[in-house]
Fold each of these.
Amino acid sequence: MKQILSVFILLFLFSPSRGQDLAHFADSIRVKNEIPELSYAAFTADSVLVKNVLGFRRSDVQNNETKANTDDYFHLGSNTKAITGFIAGYLVENKKISWATKFFTLFPEWKKDANPAFYEITLLDLLSHRAFIKPYNSGTEFQSLPKFTGTKDEQRKMFVKYLINNDALEKNNETYNYSNAGYSVATAMLEKASGKTWERLLDEVLSKKLHLNYKLGWPNRTDVNQPWGHWIENNKLTPLSPHTDYNLNLIEPAGDISMPISDYIKFVQLNLSGLRGKNNLLKSETYNYLHYGLKDYAIGWLNVNKPDKHSSEHAGSAGTFYCYTLINKDKNVAYIIMANSSTENALDGIFKLLEKLIKTVEKVK
């Protein structure tokens, strides 16, 4: 009864007038901070409190045809990692692999040429950024790679072999060492254990099991009428053509999924519901492991895990979009903000909007 009353209070708080005030605030942020299209949401495990999409899909063409739509896709960037972790949890629960499975248990034929520093790395090490795989978090790192050919999954496999045959990061005292490439190595394990490509696993879990809409890559690569990402060129905010020579194929499982906000809300709600003790596609204990299984960064989620505070968050950007997600387990509320720009100015506006959302929602708690 108490939980039902809490949800009722939150829904009452977001009356049409309150939602309109928030929309005016968000749109003023959008205009002032040069964000062409902005979407945001606040929700509980089973109710959407507020959701909105504002602006235009590209900065240089602003008319009825390019006006923001609730079905618009936004690039999740590194928030894709939580989806990869989710799929790993799905395979672990189905006994296809375990968190403790070692890479070379699945690829023994690669061990003779590999760097000994990687002999003992596990699926958990890779997904929690504790395997000392080099990061590949910037474009310059990719420029030094050999040319990989074949399908996307074949190229990723060659990339993984290249990674484990070459230098590791130097050992250090950091809790974790963030690595996009580590997720490519982990995905090679998931593919080998399941007998399915990454693309097939996505289709099985996101589409068939969860009935979620998603795309791989920038939204405008498959539909030019979808949002265009933006960055600064010649000191001006510039929309990026779908034909721009820029791709994330080698690290796709680390950061290259796009979703409409409604579908992404559903995915995050599954996590929040699981953290609150309910089983769904995954067990509640698996969600708690994904979010809080390790200190600071577990599996696709940064975390604060203290007796009086349990929260998890992640930000994602490949330089052209930005996605931020925050889950407050204790208060049963989560927030999403997505934009098709990730400039310093845009981020300043995004976090001002986040502050306003949190103050509006959590003041009734």
Amino acid sequence: MEWPSTSDLYLPHLGAKIRRGRGIGMGDAYIPWLKVRDVPSRGTSSIVRGINVDRPFHFLSKLEVTYFYLQERKSNVIDIREQFPILDIARTLELCSQFGVTHSYRGSYPEPFTIDFLITEKTAEGVRYKAASIKTPEDANDARVALRLAIEYEWCREQSIPWVLIDTSLLNDIVLENLRFLRSWFRHRYIPSIQKTSTFAMSFMNNYSRNVPLVELLKRTASQLRLEFSVAGDAFRYCGWTNQL
């Protein structure tokens, strides 16, 4: 699923954004329709550099960041596009009329619906897409929000794209901080290899005992492998991030 880059195919008021690359492209060429600076924030928005897709990702809430990290860890996920626009506005206007929903406008011009995440997965049958919406439990139970989500669902169904409303009740700050801790191997510019990862994971598990603090386990493993403690810490984070521990 990729929108054509020819701006003449869309309503004229969308042309300027599309010419700047918003909402089109895939992989590291994709630019989200909405960026952090475009949306009022309560301090929960953020920009994150991707690991597998080398570009800045724009998230409007901590819930979105948490879900992104969970998807980024999956080996079969090959692309993640946030704030993905439905540029088929003629159809979303029809669906809004059908569902009794007020379409978003900027001034007198209709604005696209945006899907929080459009994810590309590699499967045995080939590439497939799935769409995900991220809402707080309170918003998910709001009747007005539910009607807008129905527009997303129906449009995706027509495109044969599975759509799901994510249960975010367990995506709390503890989960986010744990994911950030594991992912910090990337921020520290740790360079993994298959051999180093396998050797570290085996040594760590040989040293592992219940109720022993992580710092002590890392010291033992670092000493055994003759690694600097900081390198052992990043090796542990990488192994955890990639489900090898």
